[in-house]
Structure formats: structure tokens, C-alpha cells
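3.2 Worked example (two chains)
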Amino acid sequence: MKITINRISLPAATLALFTAGATPLPAQFGNEPQKQLPPPAVNFTQEQDQQNMMDQLGIKVLRPGASGNESDPNHSNYDESKANPWPNYPDALTLKNGQEVTTPDMWWKQRRVEIVEDFDREMYGRVPKDVPKVTWTVKVTEREFVGRVPVIAKHLVGHVDNSAFPLIDVNIDMVLVTPANAKGPVPVLMMLGFPAMPGPVQPSPAALAQLNDALRNLLAKSDPSIRELLDQYPAYEPIQAQPGAFPFGPPRPAAPMGPPGINGTSNDPPPTQQLIADGWGYATISPSSIQADNGAGLTRGIIGLVNKGQPRHPDDWGGLRAWAWGASRGLDYLETDPAVDAKHVGIEGVSRYGKAALVAEAYDQRFYMGLIGSSGEGGVKPSRRNWGEQLENLTGGGYYWMAGNFMKYGAKEATFGSKNAGDLPVESPELIALCAPRLVFVSYGIPELGDAKWLDHQGSYMATVAAQPVFQLLGAKTLGVSSDYHSEKMPAVNVGLLDGQLAWRQHDGGHTDAPNVKYFIAWADKLMGRAPSQ
């Protein structure tokens, strides 16, 4: 698999030769002036970048986030009687002027616009209007196998035009896999994770021997001492055949889905194998090839490229919004591929990628469905809930996922006083509601197997319940329970609420959505009106 590494700034001493004050080089032709390189990217540490944003916002001290260590003084709260200091969430169906939203037209033209603006400004940040174009290139196309099903696997790279700032290079890494014998375009689930070809075709024994002979000759010519070593081991082959590998791509295990996690009691085939067996395709896209998962990377990646290597402003996009933007650019490609049913593309992610998957579906209405796994704070979990992970954990260590303005709500001392989660103008149920009436499957596991209490399963269920009225207004079926999020309690483990476009299921595995994939496929097939392997 190709690994993309974003170029960072050149050394200052080198750049100084080309910046103001340096003696210009003579023009090669006539009196044409020499082009000057742009200034280098700022190379902040994460701590320097966070302090820069605090200075811009006038924040002197941030409240510390909750600790996952129960023995620490600021340990997480797991007492339900203390979990709701701000029990009422903003009403998704009430305009800022107090008027009730009673029609779909009011939702689309008025209230949805208000909610998007609040999320843009205060939580996830704005995508700049001048983001460069992405050009997709198919690097590899192979006929491979997922399980025992023949597939067409493509390794794609989306190059972001960096002509305005050549010092930063962004190349989006994605793999697309579709059934080779499908009778027409197939639905595709795009997964935020680690792209890999499912079973790259291996050289035949004769071809492998030829490669090894050529490599041995090159090594022998490169250094006399290497030649002596090779003479001592005449049967040594630098390239070994992979166990079980044959030419023409025999059945191999499918690539895993999303970040590694504990599958618990599930003995199901890998999620990718389940998707292919049902007649779906899948794509895996690398978030880190879009934007680094740390604060030091904010002056590089797509955010740094657009900002020409300079620090963010308070309402600039953060990592979650950047990953979601990259997923949308992947969808741009999928819309051009004849093997893909572009009207039925979903988005999937677990943990931080679950947050990004929900943001992607909320903002891009072309995503038909979402499988949102164990997303926690900044995703499905309400920030107003005092349970496990808190808003302050994101305004502190995870600040780079969010807009700079989000840090205001973790401020203990600032020029504007202080703010907390209760001051947020929006909440997670509204993020879920932005997906309506499209399909949203909220997935969690159990703490006993690693899906930590930190994620606030009950609070996430409350947020899903609170999103129901918008789905209902738009004619979609929901969970089949009341919309009273104050009183509704989670269903038992392995009891799914899967009859509507908004769905919930807590499986008996760990920090993964893999045990819920077979339920997601059946649920989506039903709502798409398709039979398996159709």
C-alpha cells in the first residue's frame, strides 16, 4: 500500500536564500523577474498551536477535562444523579426567534440553516470557500478475492491542487472494492480507516524467482561485502512468497473494518466480507492522508494547505470537519465510477472516526446512510451530559478536532469571563437531525469488553431519541419510542430498534461496530428495497 507523507516546510536557512533580503538570481531569459517562494509553513508544537488559539480568543485558563482514572481527583462522573446539570437540550424545531417549526419547508429553509451556522461557527469550523480541487488517479486496478467472491479492487489517490502553496502536498488515499460479477451498480459503504487492497495478486513462482535473481545481482554489484554475504547463502531469496499466496488472487481474508477493536462474542465473517457477500461494495479512505490527527499538524494537511502554512483563525475548520470534507471528495470520485450506485453510498467510522462519519453525513446530503460507531463526545454523545468524557476533554487535548471557537466553552478564565457546555447554542441531537430523513444507524458496544463507560451509552441513546422529531417532521420512521429523552432508557444489549430510518443497537462486543454490521446491512437493504446480492 502506498503511504502518503505530506511535505512540510523547507529548512529556514534554505528558504532564506529565496525570500526577501536575498540577492536575486539573474534572469535566465531577458529581464524576467524571479518568482519568490512563499514563506515557510509555521512549525508549531501542539502546545504552541493551542496557546496561539487561546491568545486569539482571550482565554487565560482552560478547565481540565475529566480523567479516566477513578483514583484521580478530577475523575469522570458515573453517577446518573449528577449526569444532567443542563437537562434540556436546544430544540431542533424551534427557530431562534422562538417560532415553532411546523413544516418541512421551514426546516430546510430556516431552522436547518440556523443549526448549520452554529455548528460551523462554534463547533466544527467552516470549510473555506477556496479549497483547491481534488484530482483522482487510479493507481492500481486488480481482480482479487474477498472471501471466495471475485472483486475488482482499485487503489486511488486524490491529489489536492497545491499550486498556490507548493510547500504542502496533500494526497488522499482510498481503496474501492466492488463485486466483479455484479449485474449493475452496487451500494457502497465508505469507511474511515486504513486503506488496503484485500488480496494483492502475487507473482507466480517463476516470476518470483526472476525477481529474486535480479535483486541478488543488484545487491552484489552495490557492495563487495554484500556479494560475499550472498555467496555464503546461495539459496537465500530476498523476496519470500507470502503464505497461501498464488497468482491470480485466490480467496484471502478480507481487510478489517475501521480501527482495531474487540469483537466480543461475534463469530461473523469480517465486515468487508459480509458487505461483498451481500452484493455491496466498500471503500476505505485514510483520514490521516487528509489531515493529521494532532494539533501540530494544523499548519499542514488540507487545513494548512488552504491557510498557506499559517495558524488557524477561531472559526476555521478542525480535524473532524477536514476528515468529513475528504470523505466528500472520495464521494466525488465514487459518483464517477460506473460500478458504484452513487445514490446509495454510506459512511462509516468508529470512535473518533465515528464522530467524523456523523459530521460527514450531516453536512453532505449525498451520503444516503451512516453507520456511526461508538462516537462519544463530539459525536452522538451530548456535551451537556456530565458522564465520562466531557466537553473539556475536547477543548483541552482534543481541541484540534474542533473549531478554535469551541475552546471558549472550556474556558475557566478569559477576557469574556467563562463559558461551559450549557452555553453551547447547539447539541448532538441536532447534528443527528441534520442527517434526516436519510438513514442513521447508531452503534455501541459494552464496557465489559472495552467500549468504555467514558463514551456515555445512555446519553448517546438520549441524543438519538431527541433527534426523532425532525425525522418525523420529514416523513421518516424513527426508533418507535417516545421523544422524551429525559425518561427514555436504553434497550437491553442486543435488542435493536431497527424499523425506521433512525436506528439504534448496542451489541455485546467492544470498541468496534463489527458485530452490528450484519444488522446494518439487513436494515439498509430493507430501506433501499433491495434483496441480498441484488
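3.2.1 Second chain
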Amino acid sequence: MTRGYLCILLHAHLPYVRHPEFEDSLEERWLFEALTETYLPLLAMLEERAQRGARGRITISLSPTLLAMFEDPLLRKRYAFRLGRLLELAEREVARTRHDPRFHALAIHYRDRFRAGLSQFEERYRRDVISAFRALFDAGAVRLITCGATHGFLPLMSLGAPSWRAQIGAAVREFERHLGRRPEGIWLPECGYSPGVESVLAEFGIRFFVVDTHGILHACPRPLPGTYAPFRTEARVLALGRDADSSRQVWSATEGYPGDASYREYYRDQGFDLPMEEVREFLPSGGTRTHLGLKYYRITDRRSDHREPYEPGRARARALEHAAHFVRERSVQAQAVADGIGQPALLLAPYDAELMGHWWYEGPEWLGHVLDEAAGAASKIQAVDPMEAVGALPRATEGRLHPSSWGEGGYSAVWLDPSNDWIYRHLNHAAETMQSLARAGDRGDSLVRRALVQAGRELLLAQASDWAFIMRTGTLVPYAVRRTELHLSRFERLAGGLKANRIDPAELAELEELDPIFPGLDPGLFA
């Protein structure tokens, strides 16, 4: 008898990065690394399971900015070129290590992997990754949901509903444009919940969203089942809370699976280890050393810097063991919970998608094994998507959710910090200006409407939570500051032109070409 429903949710997001002015930028490589190490392997795993009719399903939230980059012809072309260059480097590594028994087999492993990835992208998908996700979605092999348009952190938008409506409405419409139907679920950016958001979600047909554990545990009234049952908000949209035990099993720095000695070490990469003259031509413009994806060592011992050569076969065996352990633990957990609450347990396990493959190389393989183990005769849980779980559970709790996020500290501290707090007076002022401009409308003037649309784009791009996060963590801070200031300054120029009725058609066309995101954006969403 099923004692629990395991809902694994992967949040797939990257900030919108497109730099036609540079031949090869470090920031565009964020997308290229994610495609090679996470999205193509995940798609291959899901397609293999669909072909053999395997039971079990996961949910993936595809952010609108990620979909926009998947769609962009320039980025598609550049990714195909970069992956081809990686294959060339791997070929050189096969030749270089031919007399080195420690690493020769690994060089062949990467060469074969890059070759398969290039074939998958170029020949099978014709560079159209969105169509691959859509095919799996249409076949019922995966549930796809959306996210905020540019991953803006909703709790810090002082206008509230008008700003939320733009982020959520644009996201829903982009999802429908790309995937042929409206999303039933949403991943709130950074899992950031603020009271009232659920009313805007209901307005756009969203049926469920995710909150962190304490959003439900501190709800009023506090629900007796905690996160183990759906939580119905006053707007009738369901909130699903993150299961702390499922998260700890994977995320924990001390006991999480990805830190196992057999798994691949992320930080040792040939982009840093090889002499500069051997890798310079494969590095971004300027020769900045960075990860290239050829990593020859395993973690070995987290307590020291010593590393042994990576053994893919050993790592694959460990991934299978960890998958079996994960499902056993969830079965025991679900049995205990079900006995206590009188119905099967809801176990929501959300992770960043890039954990699977990028940070944890063996992650996609582990995930496939988890789905197979959960479908086995000994399992007391079923791996399903949230709507399946909700439909199978007889009762949900009701009340008012507690404000929350999944950032450090559980609230807004990551995105409202002395390192980044200066941005909000500008962002919120721009949002108020955009609301005023949108209410004034375009007066039937096509040029005015184009300027309104572009102003909306610039505001949404400036609101991306990624920039505040980068400022807080101290990585690539100048880039995050530059992107925030760039989009705000563009917005101010457009707003000034709209107010004075002096729009420069040439400048507007240039801005439209630089960031061709959200082609169907409706300025009315900001009103």
C-alpha cells in the first residue's frame, strides 16, 4: 500500500545573459555549462525512461529567462560552437594522456560524453531544447511549471500586486507560448512568499506553488500535518511545503550524498590544472581561467585537499546505492507520517536543477535510479508530480501562510543586505513609474507601445534576484552591479522619452535587438 507521494521538483533557472558585443563572454558560459552538464543529461535520462515506459515522474520549473536563452538563435549557435571546441580539447586530452594509465580512460570518457552531447543537441534536437522538454511534457513523462518572469524576488517589491502581476503574468504567457498550454504550478523566485501573492497566482490560473518548510510550520493556524499535506490558501491556490528530511539527505554539507568520496570533485578542472599555453584558446575572451568540464579527480576526502583519480564506474555504483538508500529512508518516513496523520504523506523534495549534473556530476543518474527504486515492489512511496499527489490525498489543511523564502535565514536577508540594499529605491521607483506609464497607455501609437514594451522588459531584467544574490555572495559583483545599473538607466531613458513624447526610434530598435526577450509582453500587466 502506498504510504507516501514523493514529489521531486527541479528548479531550472539562469539569469538572462546575452552579449552579442563579445565573441565569447564568461557569463554566457553559465548557460553552456548548464546545458552540457545538467539539461542535456537530464533530458537523456527522462527520454530513456519514457522509451521503456518506466513509472514515476518528476516536476521541473523552467524559468522564462532560461526558456528565452534556449530559444535564442545566437546563443544556440554559440553553444554548438563551444561544445564542438570542448570536443576538440577532449580529443587533444586523449592524445596527451595516451601513456598515462591514471587519466587516459577518463579523457576518453569526456570525449565520448561531449560527442554524444553534441549529437543530441545538433542532430536529435536541431538545437531546439524547448521542443525536447515539450515532447516529454506532452507524453506525460514530466510535469513542467513556470517561475517569475525574470526571477524577481517578490517580497521586496513595494508596489505589491502590480509588480507581482507583471512578473507572474509575463511568465505564464511565455510558458504558454513555448509549451502550448498554461502552467498549473509555479516556483516563486527564491521560494519567496509574501501574503497576497496567492491572489495574483489565482488570477492567472495557477493551482499550486512551493514554500519553504517554515512557511507552513509557522502558518496560522499551524497545520497538524505540517508539510506532509497540501495547504489551501484563502485564494484556494495550494501551497506545498519543502520536506526538510528529503532536502537534508541531498543538500547537507556534512551528510548529503554529493559529498561522497567516490563522486567527482567539482573544483579540480583542467581549465585550471593544464598549462596556460594548452588551454588559452579554449578559455573566454581575455584568457580568464575557468571551468571547462574536464575534471579528473574524485572528492576522496572532504577533510583534506588530497584527491585521487576519478573512477566513473565506482561513482555509478555509489549513485545506485544512494538512490536505494534515499527511497528506503523516504519509505520509512512516509510510513511513520501516514500512521500519525491518517493519510499518505506528501513529501516534496525541491532542488536546484543544476545540482543534478553541474555540481553533482552523478546527479541525473542518481535521480533516474530513485525513480526506478520508488517504482519497485518494496517501495512504500510513489514518485509523482504535485497534481497527482494532491488528487490522491483526501484532505488538505487551510489557513494563512507565513512569509518565507529558502534563502539563508529563511526570509529576505540574502536579497536585502548592506551589499545590495541600494538597488531597491531605484527598482521600486522604476516600478511606480512603469505603472503610471502603463495606465496612460499607448494612445494607439505603435512607437509608443514599442517603447512601453521595452521599458517593461528593462524593468523586469533589472528586477532579477540574481543580481542582488551575486552582490551578497561576492562573486562577479561588478557584473551584477553593471547589469542592474544598465537596465535601470535604459528604463529611465525610455520613461523620459515617453513622458516627453520624444522617442528615439533608432535607440529603441537597438535596445529591442540587444535583448529580444518576451516578444509578446503586454504593458497592461504593469498597470
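3.3 Remarks
The mean pLDDT is 96.
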